[in-house]
């Protein structure tokens, strides 16, 4: 730290210390602008590159949730904010808390965040297990083993100073920013080199894969904040990569019905026996794309064929036949829905009443969606039952569309038939005209040349 | 008004007394006398006279069906399409009303164009009928404007984008194009404001103008009588064969009305007017956007013009050209000054008709 003129510093310190002694006597808190911390740590020029992290800007403090709640430097760091003397300000007697290694940081934050009584001042039922969870996480365990390890801790994700509330749009842990925050390390090939998980290299393509997923699309492009990002599956403070057997539980936290169906299947046990990661076996883990019907069956691109074609992991050929049959049934309902919708569109363009039928067709679309869910039961019967309900609806809708076409034709026929009475009137008029006396030749009053015609 | 002798004649029976009551109060005697005295010349092209009557009949059909549609139509972007859908599906014979109104409009323009061409061929615009011609041309323009404004009202995809293209042409008018475009659309784009504006024009402003112009046109037709073509006067001199208007011509006219009704029913039966799909202003324009057939020649010609021509924007030049042509057509009675100018006018007329037909076919096939 560079020192300014010793005379000026000593003078200012003496005057300030005298003034603050009076203030201390009155036991009033130190106002931020009077804190000696800011006077040094807020001065950019006095912090060299190697100690730059000690420099705190006004903007950092203004955005910081702690600062906004009235929690100032010495509330976290301890020390004497009234002292302009370095030793006095950082004295252990005044409660100054030293951070000697990264390992100290979770405990530093946990000093308050693990204190239920203290945190209750800010939230009626505060969550105070972050630090405890952290030490159980992959990050925490690694830090525990190696105190100097370059591993994520509180400040890595939340920032050091300028810590924003988690619901602040600019917070690095706001749902839309979480993946980018994790990617700071997990997409860095250099940082992730040599990092192992379950005995395999962890890799660094998770962020890239997730970015192409249906979840990223929902979260980032469609603004669905409930769509999962890293922490929704891996946890946040207690981050762990789920065990293969636990994957389906993670997915089921949102996909409840599918999870329930899958839990009851033989397939789940087979997957567990083969150490396959549940849902991720077919849908992938980070690059989870929008599921398509092409995934079902044994044709190219179908996920069933991966195991059932070669009898891998004990998969049977009978399962392949069943998968093919389900795909055919699914396609049939889709085709019938498309035909019915096409007929309704045509009838509607004609101006026929098909709104009720169109509303009814939604039941068939619901049946299709339900069948796609029921497929996760890996049983033919329940899927066929739902598909049959859908087919029955399309049949009724098709019949209503045909009724509309018939009504339209009926109108046209009757309109054309109206030509008969119209023609009859024309004939009668012409016959009557023939009975009139023949026209005479008379000078025209208005049609003559004289009239200028 | 002097008391006519027929008014003084004693009325006999109940019908006679009723007739006398109204004749005395409305001066119907003059009208009846006019009907009895009015005669219509007989010659080779007499059937052309029926076109005016057919047009008048179709105007009445349009007014009647339009009034009935307006009982159910709701002119707002949220409700316009749905209200037309309700007219076609829920209102008793609403589908028939809409079909008749839509086809009636297009048939009326067709009849008016034929009326214009036959009037030109018979040179019925000559002195003293110059303003019968002028009001007729203005009426044709007005009914085309009726068609253009009415086209948007169902607020379907085709109507919305055709109106967007059509009103954009207004923007090409030199000097005041931008202001005219904003005035026509009620803003920069085709929106609910455009719909409200077109509806007001279609059901209030244009009908008032039509009543005024049609009144003057019919008064002038009545005042000057039917024009006799040169061929007939050359053949018969001042004694051209004629028939009384009532009942001889009126009954033949009625045949024309029924023929128009038959064509209307046939068109509605063979080509039912569809509802289409609701307009999506922020969606992309559907393929094959075309205006009504009577604007197609202008639309196609403007589309084929180069972007820049003779140092001007092509579209602007096209709009100026069509505006000038319309002005020339309006002034035909004053331009026909003798054999030489008549030959020039006839030549231009033939070229114009061929151009309009060719461009329309091209536009239709495009």
General shape of chain B: globular
Number of domains of chain B: 1
Structural class of chain A: mainly alpha
Question: Helix segment count of chain A?
Answer: 25
- Low-pLDDT runs of 5+ residues of chain B are 1-7
Query: Order of SSEs of chain A, N→C?
Result: HHHHHHHHHHHHHEEHHHHHHHHHHHHE
Described by the principal axes of the CA atoms, the overall outline of chain A is elongated
- Tell me about the biggest sheet of chain B? 2 strands, antiparallel
Total number of strands of chain B: 4
Question: What do we call the CATH homologous superfamily of chain B?
Answer: Cytochrome Bc1 Complex, Chain C
Report the portion of residues of chain B in β strands: under 5%
| Beta-strand share of residues of chain A | under 5%
Q: Tell me the quaternary state.
A: heterodimer
Tell me about the largest β-sheet of chain A.
Answer: 2 strands, antiparallel
Please report the first level of CATH classification, the CATH class of chain B. Mainly Alpha
Range of helix content of chain B? over 70%
Give the SSE string of chain B. Answer: HHHEHHHHHHHHEHHEEHHH
Mean pLDDT of chain A: 85
Structural class of chain B: mainly alpha
Q: What is the helix fraction of residues of chain A, given as a range?
A: 55-70%
